Amino acid sequence: MRILVVEDEQKLSSIISHELSVQGFDVEVADDGAKGLELATSYSYDVIILDISLPKLNGTEVLAGIRKKDKYIPVIMLTARDAVGDKVKHIEGGADDYLTKPFAFSELFARVKALLRRSQNQKNETIRIADLEVDRLSHQVRRAGKRIELSGKEYALLEYLALNINQPLSRTMIVSHVWDQSFEGLTNIVDVYVRQLRGKIDGGHERRLIKTVRGVGYTLNEKIE
Ligand code: CA
Question: For residues 34-44, b (16+ Cβ closer than 10 Å) or e, as one string?
């Protein structure tokens, strides 16, 4: 597994790169945005860890450049800012996850593993999250082995959440993926459908899988809170 780390703070990049190497990853480091973009678009990586404040090109510009060439490569943004607006902006700009500095390496490692699992899920016919099973061929859904009947839109919403396990998805992103539309006015419909879907997926289960991410939207994850 190859990981690209784009980070200009040398101390941080060497810690990240050392720890990831210990875990068996093949790590490359770029210490400015221009070099990061060049490596990201010339070689293939399984995950990219991208700082936002960088010399030459900032993280947002690097991300835009990466997404022009590759829509799917998982990208984790590192941000010193904890502003909700930034998170939404980066997620909508195509980041798969973000981590606010300072962070523990174990947290970064958990996110990297989750992203690798997500890209694996995207190749699989059946997505399994805790005791939830989503069969992408038959569109059958089971929780704890019990079949759950969903409408077409509910299924599409669940599949989109499941393919993006752990990633907070904004209402705008959900509308454009599930309804193929981008009208701002439609974002209310997302809340309605999420409520219905939650009733069917999480109703009667102690462990809730569909979570609200305040200021962003929704996510499906198996973390126990
Ligand atoms: Ca930096």
Answer: bbbbebbeeee
Q: Last residue of a domain, which of 120, 137, 158? A: 120
Q: Ligand 1 centroid to 2 CA: how many Å? A: 21
Q: How far is the CA of 202 from the centre of ligand 1 (A)?
A: 40
The residues whose Cβ lies within 5 A of ligand 1, an ion, are 8, 51, 53
> Is 191 found in the same domain as 93?
no
Q: How far is the CA of 53 from the centre of ligand 1 (A)?
A: 4
Q: Using alpha carbons only, what angle is made at residue 98 by residues 71 and 143, rounded to the nearest 5 degrees?
A: 80
Using one digit for the tens of pLDDT, what is the confidence trace for 40-81? 999 999 999 999 999 999 999 999 999 998 888 899 999 876
Are residue 6 and residue 116 in the same domain, yes or no?
A: yes
Q: Identify the domain containing residue 134 by its residue range.
A: 126-220
Domain boundary (104, 120, 136) is at 120
Q: What global pTM score does this model have?
A: 0.70
